[in-house]
Amino acid sequence: MSRLYNVDIIKPNTIFQGFYMCGIMGYTGSLDAAPILLEGLKKLEYRGYDSAGIAVMDKNVISMSKVSGRIAHLCEKTNDGKLFSGHAGIGHTRWATHGAPTDTNAHPHMSNDGKFAVVHNGIIENYLTLRDELKEKGYRFDSQTDTEVVVHLVEMYFEGDFRKAVMKAASRLQGSYALGVLCSDEPDKIIAVREYSPLLIGVGIGDNYFASDVTALVQYTRNVIYLDDGEFAEITKDKITVYDCTGKEINKEINHISWDIQAAEKGGYEHFMLKEIMEQPGAVKATITPRMKDNEIVWDESGLDKLDLKNVNKIVITACGSAYYAGCVGKYVIEELCRIPVQVELASELRYSNPIIDEHTLLIVLSQSGETADTIAAMKECMKRGAKSLSVVNVVGSTIAKIADYTVYTWAGPEIAVATTKGYTTQVSILYLLALWMGKKAGTLDETLYQKLYDNVKMIPKAIQNALDLNPKIPQLAKKYHSSKAMFFIGRNTDYAVSLEGALKMKEISYLHAEAYAAGELKHGTIALIDDHQPVIALCCNSSLQEKTISNIVEVKARGAEVLAVTYKDNSNIISVADDVIYIPQIESILSPVVEIIPLQLLAYYVAKENGCDIDKPKNLAKSVTVE
Ligand code: AGP
Hints:
By secondary structure, the chain is α/β, with parallel strands linked by helices. Helices cover 33% and strands 23% of the residues. It contains 20 helices and 28 strands. A hairpin with a 4-residue loop joins strand 10 and strand 11 (208-211). Helix 13 (422-442) packs antiparallel against helix 20 (593-610). It starts with a strand and ends in an 18-residue tail after the last helix.
């Protein structure tokens, strides 16, 4: 009889917290604000950023300094903040999403009349519509960011009441945001707003603060108020007043932080990898939501809408490592929904393969970092032969993004652990959107199926959240399996594609020999390796091929294997054949890869932990492979 590790069906109202890309901080008190902001921003550096800036209010004037690159450069430029006087200010570390990492795109952003300055963490999904509206009303835009609409909205709605203007502006925003706003009419006041992006107020004595991340605050105060979604705070040096979204004053509890700085950096998790695993519902949501509007897939910022699909007779996906495995999922999905032949090629092989590629080839390049040397070389080779290139990249302004004809960003935020998790799931999510978009455009996807899949794609963040609820059970499984010498991952079709990534996760962080096999290939050789107690992880989420995979499970069981199956909640057939079962929430089969990888990431993580490995920095590996 198998042991069951159960996950509930998707919970409808799960809210994804704790995912963020940029870092924000604010101070108001009796000291000079600039040095305090710079010290706070330095504590946010660990999360990765590409530009930084501060704005300080002195009497009724707001001054700003922004740089692309490091905070050290900002310190140099401002003489460690001494060039500014003023006791209230806001600061920002930016991880570029909308617009390259330039000085102009760095935050804060200022209103045209110089009265307001804003820092923002999150994504404003309706910024294009708002930008058009504001431009029509005569507001000048200096940056390419989504954030700049916020400051112009505040200016537009200001009729003498700072808080009312911010509330009105916020009511127009869709997406996720934590905001800090200055108004030169009220020189010691900051207004902070939260919606789906973390924000806390630091409570001092004669000094108060806000930040997106507790690490920026612990050097100044350990007493904090956590804002909830829809809440606003008016912060002055002596007073903090919190309001709900209707403007009603509310009482908030003050919490004491006891984490040390290292625990705080990891959001209380032991490793960045675990933190990043947990961030996946938010990362996928941030990546897909702005591209899903009124039952259509939209590619506003990439210009991809202009791609002439009629001219494409073949798709080549190229990448390395996990990104390549994301491409393997993409092949099944695109071929199924769009009926266009897809080749997935390892970039290191493709670059030297004299590939058959011409102007009718669409090249899809996947890369978290955007800097992988082999991927860049393969891409250049294919583009030389006439291919149109579409890159799916997480780092704005990276080499691959710059070279590509079209770029769609995965808005996963900085990934610090060497083993990718949210990088992979956001890439797979973009491939789903592409397949839906191309299938509809090419007419290979009928309206009913399109709608069904569209609705299911929207549910992916919740499904991932649900799969994460397995967390308390996975460590037990890791204890059972961690001392094995080898581990096999099997599956068919999309399950096979996921087993490749599951095995890579296991080997790269736990150093355990893990291999993925197409389940139907076992009999052609590999089954000779199956012996008593050999762990086999069987992926069984592709509904149409489940029976076939069950036969393979039975075959390896008959040779003594210990089988851990991953399947859907309602799949009782597996219980009688596998030793252990992990369930994932029900979702359309073709979309299951992005969910079934979650327990495999957790399993790899906990096996590595059992084995005492350096999880965030596995031996011999680098985060970004910028040499051949
Ligand atoms: C996987 O966990 C890796 N660290 C590695 O395989 C990675 O996916 C590969 O090097 C590609 O990197 P990229 O996405 O930054 O191009």
